[in-house]
Each structure stands twice: as C-alpha cells, then as structure tokens.
Amino acid sequence: MIPKTRRRSARTAAIVAVLMLIVLIIALMLGDYQINPAAVVATVFGAGGGTESFLINEVRAPRALTAIGVGAAFGLSGAIFQSIVRNPLGSPELIGFTQGSSAGAVTGITLAGATGVTLTGWALAGGIATALAVWFFAFRRNALGYRLIIVGIGIGAMLNALTWWLLTRANLATAQSAMSWLIGSLSARSWGHVVTLIIGFGVLLVPLLGASRTLRILEMGDGAATGLGVRVPQAVAGLVALAVALCALAVSMAGPVAFIALAAPQIARRIARAPGVTLLNSALVGALLLLVSDLVALHAWPDVTLPVGVVTGVIGGIYLGWLLATGAKSAR
Amino acid sequence: MSRRLVLTVGLIAALVLITAASVLVGAKFIPLSTAWHAIFSAETSTESAIIFDLRLPRTWLGLAAGAALGLAGALMQSLTRNPLAEPGLLGVNSGAAAAIVVGISVFGISQPGNYIWFALLGAGLAAGAVYALGSRGSAANTPVKLVLAGAAISAVLMAVVWAATLISPDALDHYRFWVLGSLTGRDAGVLAQILPFIIGGGLLALALAWPLNIMALGDDVSRGLGLNPTAVRAIAAIAVTLLCGAATAAVGPIAFVGLAVPHAVRSLTGPDDRWVLPLSMLAAPVLLLSADVLGRVLVSPNELQVGVVTAFLGAPVLIALVTRRGPVRL
Amino acid sequence: MPFLGRKTASRALRAVAAAALVPLLATACSQAAAEGECRETTPPATQSGGAFPVTIDHALGSTEIPAEPHRVVTLGWASQDTVLALGTTPVGIAEDAWAGDDNGLLPWTDEAITRNGNTIGPVGSDADVSVYADAPEVNLEELAGLNPDLILATYSGITQEEYDQLSKLAPTVAYPETPWLVSWQDQTLINGRALGKAEEAEELIAETQELIYTTGAEHAELPGTTFAFIYSQDDGTVGIYLAGDPRVDLLIDLGMFPAPSVSDLDTAEGKFYAEISLENIDMLDDADVIVTWFNSEEEQAQLEDSELFQDLPAVKNGAYVPLLDRQLSMAVSTSTALSIPWSLEAFVPPLVEAVNAAHGTDNSDSDNS
C-alpha cells in the first residue's frame, strides 16, 4: 500500500517539476521582446548582450524564480495548516498573518512612505504581531478550534478596517501603490529576492524535514500520536510557527498573494491521489501555480500588467468551484 | 424566559437612547437647548440644517441598514447551521462591489447615492449565481455547498474588483470609501429606495423563525412535520439577499455587524430563532448607531467612518463575550 | 488695514528678490517664456559638457549620471514638463490615466512636444515620444525597449524594487524623500541638474515664479483676499488644503492668503491638508473665496445641494470657483514650468471674478442693492 502511494506521489512530483521547467523557459521567452528558446539558453549562459541580456538575466529570470520560491513557500504553509486543521479550507489566514502584514504594510506606505526592506519590515511586524495576538487570545488545549476562528474573525475585521481607513486617508497615488502590495505582486523582483528565498528555505529545511514526519504521525490521530511519544500541543504549536515562518517568507517577497496556500495542497493531493497532504508536492504545485499565474498576469491583457494576485484570485474561484464539483464531502 | 424579556426591554431602551443621541450628538457641538429649539421651531438655522439635513438622514439609514444586517446575519447563521456565518457569504457583498466598480469605471457613476441600483443588481445576480451553482449535483443546496459556491463566486468577483480598481483611478477613489461603509454622503432618496427591499426581506425573515427552528431538528423531521426544507432554504436565501443586498447597496459592506450581532445575541438567548431573529434586528442598529455617534465625536472636527468604529467597537465585545461563554450552538 | 498692507509688501519684496536672482536677459524674456521662445535667447549653459558626471542623492539611493543624456524617459508626474521646458524632448513619458487626453498626456505637455514637430504615440510605434503606462506596475520590458540613458522619477511613487531594476537600465533619479511629494521648484531643480542644466533650471524657476507674481500684480483685487481651497469626499467629510500644498501656494503667490480658520487647523508634519465633518463647514465662514475641484458633476451636485454649503458667505456671494475640468485641476495641483502658465491663463479669470463678487457684496451692504 504505502510503496504504491509513494510511487504515485514521486511520479506526480516529477511531472509537476518537468511542467515547471517548461513554463519557466516559456516565461523567459515571452515579453514585449519575444526571444526564441535557443537565444534564451544562449543568453542565460552569457552569450548575447544589451537589451536581451537585461530582459532575460535581470528581469524575467529573477521574477520567474521568485514566483517559484514564493509559490513553494505558500504551498508548504497551506499544506501544514490544512494537515493540522484537517480541512481543505485551512490556510495561513486562519491565524491572521496575512491581514496583519497587509495592515502593517499599508501603515508603512501611507504614513512613512516605506518601500523596499523597510516596507518588508512593516509587513512582517504587522503579521507577526497579529499572529501572536491571535495565538495569545485563542490558545487553549484545543488550539485550533472555535476560539481561534472567532478571535481571527474579530481581529481580521479590525485590521481590515484599519487598512482601508488608511487608504482613504492617503492621497490617491499612494493608495494605488499600496493596492499593488495588498493584492500581491512580483513586479521588478531581482536576484536579491531569489537569494533571500534560497537563504530562507535553507534555514527552514531541517524544520521542514522534521515537520514532514510529525505531520504523518499526527494524521493517525491525536491518541496514536501520543502513543508514539509525540506531545501533541507542542507539536502543533511548532508546526503553526513553521507555517507562519513560511508564509512570512512568501509575503515578504511578494505580498499576500491569495489562494496559493489554499489551493496548492489540495490540488497536489488529488493529482497524486494520495490520502494525506504531502509537503513536497504541495510546494511544487504552489510554485507551478504562481509561475503560471504571473505569466497570465503579464501577458493576458495588452498594454496593462496586473499584479499577480488578481490572477490567483480567479484561480482561487476556479479551485473552490472544483471542490464543489468534485464533492465537498471533506469540507466541513 | 425572563432573561430574554429583560434583554428585549433593554435593547428597546438602548435603541431609543442611541437614536436620540444620534440626533443630538455630532462633530459640531450643539447645546441641548439650541438643538431643542432647532428641532421644534420653524425658523431655519445652521443647527437646524445640521440636524435635519445631516443627522436625521444618517440616523434613519443606520436604523434601517442595521436592522437589515442583523436580521440577515441571524438568518444566514440559521440557514447554514454555522454560528460564524456572515450575510455576505452568499456573494452579496462581492457582487455589489463588482457592480459598483464596473459602474464607476465603465458607466461613470460616482456618487454613493447612485450606486444603489448597480449594487442591488450585482448583489442579486451574485446571490442567484451562488444559489444556482450550489444547487447542482448531489446534496444540492446543503449549507456546505452554498458556502463553497459563495466563496468561489466571491473570489472571482473580487478579482474583478481588484483589476478595476488597479486600472481605473476613479474606481479606486470611490471604492476605498464605499468598502469601509458609511452612513453619510447619501441623500434621503437612498432610504426610500432600499426600504421596500428591507421591509419585504424582513417580513420573509420573521415568518421563517418557526420553520427554521424545526429545520434545526434535521431535514427528515422537518419533512415529517410537513415542511419542505428546500423551499425554506430558498426563501431564506431570498430574504438574506434582499436584506443584505439593500443594506450593502445603501451603506457599504459592513458585514461584520451581521456576523457579530446575531452571534452575540445567540450566546445570550440560546438557539431559538423566534428570539434570535427579532433581537438581532433590534441589537444591530444599536451597534451601528453607537459606532456612528462615536465616530463623530472621536476625531472632531473630523469624523471617522462608521465601518471603522463598528469593527473596533464590535470585535472586542464579540471576542470577550464568546470566549468567556464558550462556543455558541445552533 | 494693516494686515493687507503687510501682505502686499512682503509679496512685493519676494518679487524683487526673485527678480534679482534672474539674469537680466531671462527677466526680459519672462513674457516670452510661456510661448517657449525664450530658450534661443538664453546663452548656452557654459557647463553643458562640463557638468557631468552629476551625482544626485534621493530617497532610494545616490545616482551618478556619467554623461549628457540624450534618451530621457520620465516616470510619474511633472518631470516631462521640466525636461521639455529645458529644451530636451523625452523619448518616453508615463501616461496620466486620470486627466490625460487620448494619448495620455496633459495639454501643455502635448503642446510643448508637437510645437517642435515631434509626434506622440504608444510604445512600439514610430512616434518620437512614446507614452507608456506606469500603473498599476512599471513594465520594465517597455522601458528597456525605449533604450533610455536617463530615467527621471523625481515626482513618482516608484518602489525600491522598481528603482533597483530601473537603475540597471539607466541612471534613475527618484523622489527626494517621500513618494509623490516634491515641490515644483525642487522637482525642476533636481531634473535640471540631472540634465546638466542646473542654471537654466534656476532661471526657469525664477521666470515662472515671476510670471505668477506679475499675474498677481496685474489684479489688484487679489491681494488681501482670504480663500479656502477645499475638496469633498464620499464619506461626507470635507478636506481643506493647507500651505505647502501646490494649490494653496499658487494662490498665496498670487497675493491671496488662507482664511485664518484654515491656517489654525492642526495637521501632521508633511501633510498639507486637514479634514472636517460637513457639520463643521461653517468654519469656512471667514473665507472670502472658496475654490474646490470635483471628479464629476454628480460629486459637485452632492456638495452644492447641501444647505450648509449654500449658507457659506463665499458661496452666497457667488465667490465660489468649482473646477470640474480635470486638466485644470491637475494644472493647479501639479505645478510645473509648463502647467503654471497654462493654469494662470485658465484659472485666474474665474478667480478674479469670484474675488470681485466677494468684495462687491461687501461694498453693497451699505447701498443695499
């Protein structure tokens, strides 16, 4: 049984990875300057120069790689949340991180003119403070139950009001910049973002490997897990912290892009026909989803480039509709 | 029983008091005697203009929209068997939002008073689409399916809202004020436009209190007692759409009122819809008008939009009430 | 009226000081500046070649411009006007989605381009000047296609990320401290320095300033008149622009001064407006003239239908100037060396009319007409 599932899971991973590579090459080709595949490969390896080299090596490649890293981080974060709450509608939004980071970022943009690293600082401060507040008010034995949801809704409503109030107080041009951040954008990402993502994943690799094992044990049920020597509340707290860290990494690189964390784990689970949520596949599907979304955002409309979050919103709608069509038995 | 009566009397008293406060208190300080004179004498003055042109319209609007949101929320929570449901779950808010940004960026409307028909149409279409999507396939129209269908349609509609606000500066400029929710900047005609919808939806909703109580016992029991569960759900969905659609069209998506008030009321009265529905209808305008009055005095000579104060007033109360009393059952 | 006298005196002093800054030649052609014929008579900048490399510090870093730029792209607002006024035609200009014409440009920008026989078109066309969209996101591919050797985003809201990427394309100058905040004088000076035309930029500022003062001086009724420049918002509040905002500064330079109640409003540092509830609009009773702008006629009706607004003395007296033309609203809010002559021509006549109406009613109190 288990080897069979594993094999299917590995095959899924391989297929998604190959698809991702193909989309990556397409992403390097497409743009106001169409560049053929041969020239893309040559330019990546240093041939050519001028505009082509700038567009491929400085604009398209770092942007596409950032999409892959951010998508993977959101996919992982969502997979961990959905495993813990055992619900396909679980996502980092449950703990208020994204709403908090939005409020933090909009505060920074409208009141302090923040941008770049400073803006990331504002967003992270808002997100972490909110996650801690939700956890503090909601934490009981059953940490992810009813209280968490109600506290999350209450704090979310306040943050949302704060965010939009700040946007009404700002001048329109500033509000427009803030909107782009709020929706989630991969505009003008550079190698600095790619390097930050690599460092982030490097730091989180060991906890991720541990989480993969803990999640498998927790899926057997709290009783069985306790029998196997896992202290469930502590394990859950650790997993939530890891999921928030992954979400923070993603949000700080691209803003609160919607629905990737929600959709990626379930899509991965269903194409692998695996019983539980697997981390690797969720990461790969998340990466592919965001990469494709960004390509659509860049090229779907002539003359306008929209932030990627607009497209992932539509993907979220399609995903939820698909959940509906395939039977929402597990969605409670 | 007596506790419910005390609550009813208390809410009615609070409603009367807050209505009076809403007329007498504002960003401009008017002494009580001056206000009295301005209200009851025929001569016009700055004070009488403030009271009759600004404070009275927003008070009426707050009463109507608050009652509609409270009732819609209570109905939604009963309908979905989810104590955390909000009236916007059927896609009403996102439908109204999408229709308004399209109205602004494509048809050039620009005043909250002129959003009404767009918002009502958008809310109705979205709710219809949600209901149609949720009633396909097996287990049609179960609460879970409706909620999922609502989330799916809302996600797509919000993408439309994002795109429109990003491309059209005008759409963002108006949307950012609308989305917060506000009782001001609308003329008296707005109330007349939404009132038929609210009265119609309200009568439907109150008539459903008893059937919904029976529905809580399960579909089989309901059928045994001669109820048609599908029909009850359909009527409830129509009532929610009328109430929430009209309120949202008039004052913006202050959905939190519709979530928090019925939830809090239920934690005090228990799950009987014959109490939850009317008491939510009384309590929601109290929250909305209190928030509005506070918003006028907190940052005088300016004002805070009612949606901001509602969230910051309602959320802590909700959290405190519910975390102390434990989960609310339906 | 000691207050009025002091105000006039200080204005005259400033005009003299401004004139003293300007070389004689430039002063002589200040009238012609509006027509743009002045540039020929100005002596060529002595340091046109020697100015470079120029280094400009700004909010997002420090930019070195190694040599005289030939392909200038402007981002955000206003910079294109300065570049044109200094005799360079930009190869790329960001569109104005709010007030721009079919090409996305404002009329004075359009005029400055087409006067020299240059053509305007979208990116990828054969036009001399390409207009591109910089919102919601800057399209780096389009900008790369324009092959810029200088990018001026002096009056913009570009992010650090966008700045970093643009800098790889060409030297890029961002806003001095805060996104979307720079005075027209600073904007002109910074862009002038980036083009190696610092002296010409200073002259341009002095000429433009002089033009405002001269226009003010031509209308004796303006000095001493109080005003409030306001705007209405969807939530029923009214915003009042304060000194430091270009609209208010323009009226002050024309000799008017803000109503005392407006000057008393508290506001945060770096914020040039205050907001009040419509209930408190009678605070503006001491404004002789009220100026405002609207997005649309619907918005205008919303405010003008209010009895409280109608009761304001300025409105009762007909001393009320509503701006409904977006290009004019943009001209008075985003001042540049090109927009100021344009807005003076379009805005001062209705303003003078309003001021006359304000004073006319003051006088008519006695003869009871």
Structure in words:
The complex is a heterotrimer of chains A (332), B (330) and C (369). Chain A has 332 residues and is mainly alpha-helical. Chain A is globular and about 65 Å long. In chain B, α3 packs antiparallel against α11. Chain B is globular. In chain C, α5 packs parallel to α6, α9 packs antiparallel against α10 and α10 packs parallel to α17. Chain C contains 17 helices and 14 strands. Chain C is an alpha/beta fold and 369 residues long. Chains A and B meet through α6, α7 and α13 of A and α6, α7, α12 and α14 of B.
SSE layout and pairing:
The complex is a heterotrimer of chains A (332), B (330) and C (369).
Chain A: H1 2-29, H2 37-44, H3 50-85, H4 97-112, H5 116-138, H6 146-169, H7 172-183, H8 191-218, H9 222-227, H10 232-254, H11 260-272, H12 279-299, H13 308-325
Helix pairs in contact in A: 1-3, 1-12, 3-8, 3-10, 3-11, 3-12, 4-5, 4-6, 4-7, 5-6, 5-10, 8-10, 11-12, 11-13, 12-13
Chain B: H1 2-24, H2 32-40, H3 46-80, H4 92-107, H5 112-134, H6 143-167, H7 169-180, H8 189-207, H9 209-215, H10 219-224, H11 229-251, H12 255-269, H13 273-298, H14 306-325
Chain C: H1 2-21, H2 24-28, H3 30-33, H4 38-41, E1 54-58, E2 61-65, E3 72-74, H5 79-85, E4 92-94, H6 107-114, E5 120-122, E6 129-132, H7 140-145, E7 150-152, H8 160-169, E8 172-173, H9 184-194, H10 198-218, E9 226-232, E10 237-241, H11 246-253, E11 257-258, H12 260-263, E12 273-277, E13 289-293, H13 297-304, H14 307-310, H15 313-316, E14 320-323, H16 326-333, H17 339-367
Parallel strand pairs in C: 3-4, 3-7, 4-6, 5-6, 7-8, 9-11, 9-13, 13-14
Antiparallel strand pairs in C: 1-2, 9-10, 10-12
